Amino acid sequence: MDCYVVEQVQAARPTVLERLLESLTRAFVKHAEPSPHLDLDEMPDRLKRDLGFLDGREPRYDDNRLL
Predict the structure, then answer these.
(1) DSSP 8-state class, residue 41
(2) Alpha-carbon distance 67 to 60, whole Å?
């Protein structure tokens, strides 16, 4: 024979101070996050090469294939 017990769990409501601290924390963390944009123009060539944007050769400025 099985016996089932139903327990009611009551969640504690956050106090006003806890809600205020949580909202302040969210505001500061939001401003502290780094920008998700990657600016390739400001990045040095050695870093572009390390990330795979350059293939190790000097860039071709007079490329006739584009014309």
Answers:
(1) T
(2) 13
Q: Which residue is it, tokens 């944009």?
A: 37
Instruction: Count CA atoms closer than 13 A to 39's CA, side-chain side.
Output: 5
The Cα angle at residue 47 between residues 46 and 50, in degrees rounded to 5:
90
Distance, in Å, from the CA atom of 1 to the CA atom of 16, rounded to the nearest integer, reads 47
Q: Where are any strands of DSSP class E within the chain?
A: none
pLDDT of amino acid 29 = 76
Residue 55 C-alpha from the chain's centroid: 27
Mean pLDDT per block of 10 residues along the chain (67 residues) reads: 79 86 82 70 82 70 62
Six-digit token pair at 20? 């205020």
